[in-house]
Amino acid sequence: MATRPIKFYQVGSHAAGNRLLDPSLRSLQSDPNRSNAITKGHRACQGCGEALGARYAIDAAMRATGGQLIAANATGCLEVFSTPYPESSWQLPWLHSLFGNAPAVASGIAAALKAKGRSEVRVIGQGGDGGTVDIGMACLSGMFERNDDVLYICYDNEAYMNTGVQRSGSTPPAARTMTTQAVGPQPGNPFGQGKNVPQIAMAHEIPYVATATVAEPRDLEAKVEQAMSIRGARYIHVLVTCPLGWASASGDTIKVARLAKETGLFPVFEARDGVLSAVSKIRRQEPVEEYLALQGRYRHLFKPTRQEDVIARIQARADRNIERYGLL
Amino acid sequence: MERPFAITLDVGSSLANKTGAWRDERPVYVDRMPPCNAGCPAGENIQGWLYHAEAGDYEEAWRVIVKDNPFPAVVGRVCYHPCTEVCNRAQVDEAVGINNVERFLGDEAITRGWTPQGPEGHSGKRVLVVGAGPSGLAAAYHLAMMGHEVLIRDAGPLPGGMMRFGIPAYRLPRDVLDAEIERILALGVTLQCDSKVTDIQQAMREGEFDAAFLAVGAHIGKRAYIPAGEAAHMLDAVSLLRGMESGERPLLGRRVVIYGGGDTAMDAARTARRLGASDAIVVYRRDRDRMPAHDFEVQEALEEGVVMKWLTTIRSAGEGTLVLERMELDDTGFPQPTGELEELAADSVVLALGQEADLSLLDGVPGLEIEDGVVKVGVDMMTGHPGIFAGGDMVPAERTVTVGLGHGKKAARHIDAWLRGEHLGQPPKHETAGLEMLNTWYYSDAPRALVPRLDAVRRQSTFSEVQLGLDEENALFEARRCLSCGNCFECDNCYGLCPDNAVIKLEPGKRYEIDYDYCKGCGICAEECPCGAIQMEPEPT
């Protein structure tokens, strides 16, 4: 009989951990001694993907740097829910200045550490899509262009959720926000607008760019760890579900993010020096409808009448990603 | 305290903010009933023992099995495994080969000499078990484990009942059977063979027994009226199979016809092939879909060259030939004669038309009721006569080894309660964990490990075991395919995916706790639990 190696089929590598798996192969999030960089009591909504994504990322960075880490945070949900004065959930040195200057603040911290000869202390800049894609774009581009020693992480929930769900440069086509209502001949956010920051980052030819979703902690942890092993400007873009703004069930946060990847709408990849170096393949391909139907921001595509042409245009976007990044 | 310019408050922690107050639903850890457990006639905690087998702790896995069933090596071979038919994994790729893993564990126990922990004390009560078949032996085992003194009396020369005298050796090697029976006797159970009980009341009085469990089985082959010439060679399947065991090799001739369509008919046909019949022909009045024999038995018989004639009955038998009649199914699926006849050369006819129980030992027992040739029992397995319980093939139920083992266990528990003057209530059953409660994303795809089988040529000429066992590597692989439906297996998903750090990971083996001070009730843990072991419940008000 042919032999085949025994794998941990009960969980494979898809769950956070497994009692049968060697601890080194489990995700950091399964570790009872993880640093819990954002501790409990924060005021994020039920099922907040951003709170979860930030914990995955910062816990991983804390481990990679032995806790020698400073974070600069842009204005946004992450800042507001974690740090209503004078309370804070953060378990590391953490700074908040303005909405648009988090990359510049991070660059400044890195420069100060360099001046002080504290090369062991590493710097993270972080923010939502508002602070990154729109308002902080100039500072971010400057940080990339100077190749400052900062890992910048964008937690992308595809609109300004903190101020009441206004459209951002990251809002996908057809999505309803308060400023792109589901009315008129082309309801929701128009097609053909917005920007792709991971591609913009790659165009700067910085050493490391990656995307990830909140559905896969291991993947994000590995990318943060990879990023922390490199000096220079690095960028990670994490898709985080927003039950409030996307009008999805709070329990579906992981499922929605998983479908974003499995439909091809959100390609998960890595790039070195501006060149695509690895993609995370689709495991169980699903039509975009599976993803859209879970979210109230797309309800107008199904009710009162089904907008076949709009769904087809969104599917075409997914298909284009699948072809462009080789996701299958 | 001196504060920096414009700072009026000390730095505080968000821990002061008990977000649990936001919750309108709360996650609760549950243990749901896996379909395999619900489907096991012997009441095994299958998911429970696979949990230990997955970790490679085979001895602990075996100990969990023998809490319910003292015959894992036997049952791993002969059970028709209804557990795998309801296994949720069957809808994902293929069912977990539960019986194969069980057999591996049973064989390991025999090889390594594992024995169950005996009773802690003695109750001083005496129980008579009549019949050393699966049901009687199981009852004796459980009663002995509860500290009762047990005597088994059996009419036959050796213990095992239908496991020995009904199931051919190519399906159940006798050394395996002997080893598992020996382990029961080693608990202090007394066995008397060739000791037929003819009057149960007298036997109980004479032996001063406090209770009795009857499991005499059904050993009398049913006859059918077939006009037959004197020279026609006819015998029944039960006698044929029993004869094999006592060393007789019945002369069947080269062309053997088996009449009937159950598992016994398949066993008889396959035995005939091994005894040298060039043709073993099964004649059955309905079609294959309506055949009571289990599919794999039919399949294995066909592989061994057994020929099936469906929709056919025997009209009459003469010397060397049979007259057969073709049947047709009517609208209700019942076979009707067509009048179309044909002749078939046959040296002998084996009747496999079912069995009846010999219930003469029950004559004159007050209160005891017999209906359709079997003894009526209550849900507690007690007959109408207080203190006399019954199970196995002599009560109304499917007649398989595993059902018999289940009866033995159930009866033992009720006898134990009855001896203490108590009555065992029915504990509430857990909700069954259906596939829709599982999140199969987290399981990898893994087809079932194939069980090696004996070459077809050797199967037609010898009584060597047909189905071979899994080696350790394959058994571990197979055990790990278990989805652990409805029962936490500590994958850390709830702990890792909680946005509020509100799941507390306890020591290995102790699972998790929810920190309700901070849990906001988002439901991610319940949604992402692979095995459906978390339930959202409305927050108590």
Average pLDDT of chain B, to the nearest integer? Answer: 92
Per DSSP, what share of the residues of chain B sits in E-state strands of 2 or more residues?
A: 15-25%
Please give the oligomerization state of what you see: heterodimer
Biggest interface = A-B, 55 and 57 residues
Helix amount of chain A: 25-40%
Using only CA atoms, what is the Rg of chain A? 20 Å
User: What's the helix-strand series of chain A?
Assistant: HEHEEHEHHEHEHEHHEEHH
Task: Using brief descriptors, characterize the structure shown.
heterodimer; A: 328 residues; alpha/beta; Rossmann fold; eight-stranded mixed beta sheet; 33% helix; disordered N terminus; B: 541 residues; Alpha-Beta Plaits; Fumarate Reductase Iron-sulfur Protein, Chain B, domain 2; FAD/NAD(P)-binding domain; 4 domains; five-stranded parallel beta sheet; 18 helices; globular
Quickly describe the structure:
The complex is a heterodimer of chains A (328) and B (541). Chain A is of the alpha/beta class and 328 residues long.
What does this 3D model show about the protein?
The complex is a heterodimer of chains A (328) and B (541). Chain A has 328 residues and is of the alpha/beta class. Chain A has a single domain (29-325), classed as 3-Layer(aba) Sandwich (Rossmann fold). Chain A is 33% helix and 13% strand. Chain A contains eleven helices and nine strands. An eight-stranded mixed beta sheet of chain A has the order 3-1-4-5-7-6-8-9, sandwiched between helices. Chain A is globular. Chain B has 541 residues and is an alpha/beta fold. Chain B folds into four domains: 14-31 and 488-538, Alpha-Beta Plaits (2-Layer Sandwich); 36-114 and 449-479, Fumarate Reductase Iron-sulfur Protein, Chain B, domain 2 (Orthogonal Bundle), CATH 1.10.1060; 126-219 and 366-419, 3-Layer(bba) Sandwich (FAD/NAD(P)-binding domain), CATH 3.50.50.60; 226-355, 3-Layer(bba) Sandwich (FAD/NAD(P)-binding domain), CATH 3.50.50.60. In chain B, 29% of the residues lie in helices and 17% in strands. Chain B has 18 helices and 22 strands. Chain B has helices at residues 35-39, 46-54, 58-66, 72-78, 82-86, 98-112, 134-145, 162-165, 174-185, 200-207, 237-245, 263-274, 295-303, 401-419, 456-461, 472-479, 493-496, 524-528; strands spanning 12-13, 25-29, 126-130, 149-153, 190-192, 211-214, 220-221, 234-236, 255-259, 279-283, 307-309, 312-317, 321-329, 335-345, 348-351, 355-356, 370-371, 374-375, 388-390, 503-505, 512-514, 534-538. In chain B, strands 5-4-3-6-19 form a five-stranded parallel beta sheet, with helices on both faces. A five-stranded parallel beta sheet of chain B has the order 8-15-9-10-11. In chain B, helix 2 runs antiparallel to helix 3. The radius of gyration of chain B is 28 Å and the shape is globular. The relative contact order of chain B is 0.17. At the A-B interface, helix 1, strand 2 and helix 9 of A face strand 1, helix 16, helix 17 and helix 18 of B. Strand 2 of chain A pairs parallel with strand 1 of chain B, so a sheet runs across the interface.
